[in-house]
């Protein structure tokens, strides 16, 4: 373990190697960092502001940095990028929960760490960056797309009492430069507009200067970290057990095929929980013939007359008894080694949630690398039951959109990260009939002016977005939707959209206070 102690993210104070002080080659923090990552490539390089040196949780650092592809940080007092990054980015990673380990590429110079050889992979790209905070955030932003797992990790410290966050180190010029370098160029215009509208500032010089910098956005896939992942072939955990949750609605043929695929697995589930729904109070189950067949696993079949995927999954969660849960759709196809390979990869990567690659027939993989995932898929994910059962699919989102994202954010706020794996894949058949996305008339779908966004999406925004993220989402929505509607007078369009936004706000509050809104459906 090598500890690089610095002052205000600029100069080197001292360096400790396994507790012993070693020579400083350069007082410049960035130069010294690159030197150490090369010379001590197999060591974890810890950086810490000198006034927090005594707060370091030295005893546990070895176990905290248990993998080569980790980059951790914690903002004790200062964060580099301001929270207004939410104007142009509404992913969970920009709005970390600082009370727990939380996936985030936003790095602080206060305290953090990365393996030397991992950092060195980025030297050819970022060797000209001379600001330490800017460098750390650059490595994390590109690294997260290339299999580095980045976290805000409070356990880097053994005590946090009386620590006061938050100041932001980046200048307005650095902020605009960062957005230009690491996002699509159109987001720079959105950022400028948000500063003008919401902050009554007009940073035109910073905006213009940003265009004279190197664009790193295209280099997202340009770093190969495959050799740093744990490439040891993992044996299946002999104590691993898995239950499968499948909600279904009028798809008996598809559910039978899915059960057959599960029955042919080289690693069999312990139990398959099928929640069959039919809104007809006099309807009878279409799955009795299927569920009464002989299967190599227990089938828990429930037939109910209240519909909704959220309600079904919550009911199924109460029936789970295994250590792992496979959240599955009823219209998928699985190769015979799917579950075994998935569980082996979970063990190899030391993770608690896997979002598998869900491919439609004839489609190819879009994201080719293992990485932290900003979403959650309730029809193609494997999650440790101890975390999954702490969360619920909120019925406020029933028959709308946003329940998956909300559940994923609940998981993250319980200390879980969601990892996407391109090589663990299923085929989604996209059944043309049945299911939970069939059109259902919502109470707000009447009148001349309809809400925009949908009230359930507005509920998600109000529940989880910061004020910066909410404002940025609103601006982006107004811009993107303009091309898809018929009002071409921009002033009339803005007037109408403001009304639609207000209507959505009203409905989202009503949904939030009345969870039984759809009980009669």
Automatic annotation (TrEMBL):
Ranges where the Glycosyltransferase 2-like domain occurs: 244-339
Superkingdom of the organism of origin: Bacteria
SUPFAM superfamilies xref list: Nucleotide-diphospho-sugar transferases (SSF53448)
Pfam family name, one: Glycos_transf_2
PANTHER family hit by this protein: GLYCOSYLTRANSFERASE, GLYCOSYLTRANSFERASE 2-LIKE DOMAIN-CONTAINING PROTEIN
Identification of the protein by name: Glycosyltransferase 2-like domain-containing protein
């Amino acid at each position: 373990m090598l500890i690089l102690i610095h002052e205000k993210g600029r100069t080197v104070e001292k360096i400790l190697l396994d507790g012993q002080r070693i020579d400083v080659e350069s007082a410049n923090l960035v130069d010294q960092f690159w030197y150490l990552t090369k010379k001590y490539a197999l060591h974890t390089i810890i950086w810490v502001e000198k006034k927090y040196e005594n707060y370091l949780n030295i005893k546990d650092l070895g176990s905290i940095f248990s993998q080569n592809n980790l980059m951790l940080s914690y903002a004790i007092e200062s964060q580099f990028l301001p929270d207004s990054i939410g104007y142009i980015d509404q992913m969970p990673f920009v709005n970390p929960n600082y009370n727990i380990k939380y996936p985030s590429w936003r790095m602080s110079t206060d305290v953090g760490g990365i393996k030397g050889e991992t950092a060195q992979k980025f030297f050819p790209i970022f060797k000209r960056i001379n600001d330490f905070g800017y460098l750390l955030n650059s490595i994390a932003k590109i690294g997260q797309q290339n299999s580095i797992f980045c976290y805000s990790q409070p356990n880097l410290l053994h005590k946090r009492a009386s620590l006061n966050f938050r100041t932001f180190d980046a200048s307005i010029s650095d902020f605009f430069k960062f957005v230009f370098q690491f996002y699509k160029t159109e987001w720079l215009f959105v950022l400028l507009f948000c500063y003008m509208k919401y902050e009554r500032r007009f940073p035109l010089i910073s905006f213009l200067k940003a265009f004279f910098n190197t664009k790193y956005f295209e280099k997202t896939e340009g770093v190969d970290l495959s050799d740093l992942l744990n490439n040891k072939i993992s044996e299946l955990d002999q104590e691993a057990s898995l239950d499968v949750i499948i909600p279904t609605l009028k798809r008996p043929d598809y559910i039978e095929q899915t059960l057959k695929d599960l029955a042919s697995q080289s690693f069999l589930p312990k139990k398959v929980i099928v929640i069959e729904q039919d809104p007809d109070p006099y309807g009878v189950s279409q799955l009795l013939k299927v569920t009464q067949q002989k299967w190599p696993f227990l089938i828990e079949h429930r037939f109910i007359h209240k519909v909704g995927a959220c309600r079904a999954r919550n009911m199924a969660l109460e029936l789970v008894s295994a250590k792992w849960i496979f959240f599955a759709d009823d219209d998928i196809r699985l190769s015979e080694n799917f579950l075994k390979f998935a569980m082996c990869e979970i063990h190899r990567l030391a993770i608690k949630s896997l979002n598998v690659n869900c491919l439609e027939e004839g489609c190819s993989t879009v994201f080719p690398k293992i990485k932290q995932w900003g979403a959650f898929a309730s029809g193609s994910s494997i999650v440790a039951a101890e975390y999954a059962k702490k969360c619920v699919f909120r019925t406020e989102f029933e028959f709308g959109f946003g329940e998956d994202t909300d559940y994923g954010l609940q998981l993250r706020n319980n200390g879980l990260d969601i990892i996407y794996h391109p090589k663990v894949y299923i085929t989604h058949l996209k059944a043309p009939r049945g299911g939970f996305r069939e059109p259902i008339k919502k109470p707000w779908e009447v009148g001349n002016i309809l809400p925009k966004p949908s009230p359930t999406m507005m509920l998600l925004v109000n529940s989880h977005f910061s004020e910066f993220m909410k404002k940025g989402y609103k601006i982006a929505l107004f811009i993107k939707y303009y091309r898809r509607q018929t009002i071409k007078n921009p002033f009339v369009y803005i007037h109408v959209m403001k009304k639609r936004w207000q209507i959505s706000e009203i409905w989202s509050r009503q949904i939030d206070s009345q969870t039984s809104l759809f009980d009669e459906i």
